[in-house]
Design goal:
By secondary structure, this protein is an alpha/beta fold. It has a domain of 49 residues. The chain is built from three helices and five strands, in the order βββαβααβ. A five-stranded mixed sheet has the order 1-2-3-4-5. Strand 3, helix 1 and strand 4 form a beta-alpha-beta unit.
């Protein structure tokens, strides 16, 4: 049974395209680059990663949905977005393509081993397409 929630927020961490000069609009908040010379900026790469946060009765829970392609991009973008990785409740990997799970190594390297649940689609690897 689905439980009604008060709010769902999706933050794209990695995508194939990035425009830090694009303004937000109603219902959409976009990251705005601040200091082009002095601080790290978001990076784009082939792949996908998003934070999905659900709020109900003041309780907020966040999962990382996919982890991008390379070990450095997801960790870097989470840092730039100032996401406290310790607040994550789980990591979800949608399927076995490397551009959705390749960044896991960077998260482990950055955070060390943890007891954070890793949710993987039950058919992952059934077709021999990947080894996560």
């Amino acid at each position: 049974m689905l439980v009604p929630v008060d709010r769902v927020e999706v933050t794209v961490v990695i995508d194939n395209y990035l425009d830090v000069l694009m303004a937000g609009e109603d219902g959409v908040v976009r990251y705005q680059a601040r200091d082009f010379g002095g601080t790290e900026q978001l990076v784009a790469e082939h792949g996908f990663s998003a934070l999905v946060s659900v709020e109900r009765d003041g309780d907020r829970r966040t999962v990382l949905y996919d982890a991008g392609l390379t070990p450095h991009a997801v960790a870097r973008n989470l840092d730039v977005l100032q996401v406290p990785v310790g607040d994550l409740r789980a990591i979800v990997i949608s399927h076995g393509h490397a551009d959705h799970h390749g960044g896991l190594e960077g998260l482990v390297r950055r955070q060390g081993r943890s007891r954070l649940p890793l949710v993987i689609h039950p058919e992952l690897g059934a077709s021999g397409e990947s080894n996560v």
